[in-house]
Amino acid sequence: MIAAAGEDDSLGRDNDLLWHLPDDFKRFKRLTSGHKIIMGRKTFESFPKPLPNRLHIIITRDKNYKVSFPDCIVVHSLEEALDLVNEEKAYIIGGGEIYRLGEKYADGIELTRVHGTFNADTFFPPIYATVWELVAEEYHPKDENHEYDFTYRTYTRKNNEAINLGDSNN
């Protein structure tokens, strides 16, 4: 999974990001280019056009939903999306519901922790220390191009057991 989330796990509001972090966009592009990206329909529709050099797997409950772009595939469940991945590296890129459903399948999290709290309607699931191990971290102070301090954090799953997130409020 790959995401940028505030200190309160906020992701976005009204299907839009809460911040503009150019260096985080560059990192997202570098990490996901050449790979399959899995997302919900609303996340896909928040893009002006499909992201280049990535196969988009779009999850929707709408059986009639169609996309006319060549690098986009529409599926109707996360499991159907994962069946298209095989053993390849892929990234779950959102939104909140897709992250919540996908966490039990993920073997890693690339999280940009934005140092602030935000008025959001979509949230990243909590990262439990019993499940995830922080293996790398890089701090980025705010500057003329970045309104907020943020830290890149890389997590790996501590074990291969999936967790039950049914009790999550996010």
Q: Keywords for this structure?
A:
alpha/beta, disordered C terminus, four-stranded parallel β-sheet
Can you describe this structure?
With 170 residues, the chain is of the alpha/beta class. It has a single domain, classed as 3-Layer(aba) Sandwich (Dihydrofolate Reductase, subunit A). 17% of the residues lie in helices and 33% in strands. The chain is built from four helices and eleven strands. The protein has a four-stranded mixed β-sheet with strand order 1-8-11-10, with no helix packed on it. It has a four-stranded parallel β-sheet with strand order 6-5-4-7. A three-stranded antiparallel β-sheet has the order 3-2-9, with no helix packed on it. A hairpin with a 2-residue loop joins strand 2 and strand 3. The chain is globular. The C terminus is likely disordered.
In short:
The chain is of the alpha/beta class and 170 residues long. Helices cover 17% and strands 33% of the residues.
Proportion of residues in extended strands: 25-35%
Main pleated-sheet profile: 4 strands, mixed
For the CA atoms, what is the radius of gyration? 16 Å
Summarize the helix and strand pattern as letters: EEEHEHEEHEHEEEE
Q: Would you report the number of β strands?
A: 11
Distance between the termini: 16 Å
Helix content: 10-25%
Reported CATH architecture: 3-Layer(aba) Sandwich
Tell me the CATH topology. Answer: Dihydrofolate Reductase, subunit A
CATH class: Alpha Beta
State the CATH superfamily name.
Dihydrofolate Reductase, subunit A
Shape: globular
